[in-house]
Amino acid sequence: MSLSELTDQQRIDLAVARLQAKADDFRMTMIGPGVINKARAIAEVQARTKVGRTIMEVEQLLIEALATAPPRK
Amino acid sequence: MSKFLAIDAHGATDTNAMSDYLEKNIYTSLQPRFTMSPFFGAMARAPIVAPAAVAPDVVLITGAGHGTPTSFQGFQGQAVFSIGAYNPDEVRGKIVHFLSCDSALQLGPDLVAKGCLAYIGYDDNFVFDDAFGESFFKCNGQILLGLADGLSVGDAVGKAKDLFNTTINGLMSQGTADSMAAAQRLQHNLLHLRSPLDGPQWGSADARLAEN
């Protein structure tokens, strides 16, 4: 199954799982929303807010980049 | 000498970081060819900016601050440019570039419909992180540097996109979790950068800064 085949809920679950696996000092800054820590990031994704959508998009870009990157030696 | 207006909201951690970068590294590079009219902090308010913006020798309006789909905000979240609340003479014949979230969605096309030559900005949240923040601001700043060098809007944005891609590839090749995460945050910003290259609603790709 590819990312494009995931349902909206599956995308949310995937993003939350990835965020939960990140270091506790995870930070992302957005102009306006400000500094977003791990707990807030998870909450924003689960609540399907605009901030959460942006976080999900960045996570999906990262997954796609890792999936297409050449294998590391 | 032609003027540019620099409108930086300051007042919050996120906006301070990008404003500091712009003021130290980008605006200074524009000043040999253009005179800067600064509107920083408490000066970044519509009643103060508007009279300066209508001057015919102003060729560029730029800045960093919070944004919404319909507004660019200055000091304490006060709208400096908001749909339905500005004089079209403030933007007519000028190029506008804002480093803010969302304002390319509706405000940018509205400015262009009112006579702005070209609008360059972002149609989603602009994302960055502290460790690599300067790389993010440098890519965005390249747009202004290109314009100041006499490039058309299309060429200036194209050159900035090249820098985005080079920086993204460089971060990916570092291979650390932090650098790869930063690369995708930058990729997100690149995907949401809007300019005349994306459609005429953001103006003319052939527009360029007039030097007097």
Query: What is the average of the pLDDT values of chain B?
Result: 95
The succession of helices and strands of chain A, N to C, reads: HEEHH
Largest sheet of chain B: 6 strands, mixed
Number of helices of chain B: 6
Give the oligomer, counting copies of the same chain as homo and different chains as hetero: heterodimer
DSSP strand count of chain B? 10
Strand order of the largest sheet of chain B: 2-1-3-7-8-10
Helix content of chain A: 55-70%
Give the tally of β-strands of chain A: 2
Query: What is the fold named in CATH at topology level of chain B?
Result: Rossmann fold
**Spatial separation of the terminal alpha carbons of chain A:** 26 Å
Query: Which CATH C-level class of chain B is it?
Result: Alpha Beta
Total of helices of chain A: 3
- Greatest interface and its residue counts? A-B, 21 and 31 residues
| Number of structurally distinct domains of chain A | 1
Please characterize this protein's 3D structure:
- The complex is a heterodimer of chains A (73) and B (212).
- Chain A is mostly helical and 73 residues long.
- Chain A contains 3 helices and 2 strands, in the order H-E-E-H-H.
- Chain A has one domain.
- A two-stranded antiparallel ribbon of chain A has the order 1-2.
- In chain A, a hairpin with a 3-residue loop joins strand 1 and strand 2.
- Chain B contains 6 helices and 10 strands, in the order βαβαβββββαββαααβ.
- A 6-stranded mixed sheet of chain B has the order 2-1-3-7-8-10, with helices on both faces.
- In chain B, strand 5 and strand 6 form a beta hairpin.
- Classes of the chains: A mainly alpha (73), B alpha/beta (212).
- Chains A and B meet through strand 1 and helix 3 of A and helix 1, strand 9 and helix 6 of B.
- Strand 1 of chain A pairs antiparallel with strand 9 of chain B, so a sheet runs across the interface.
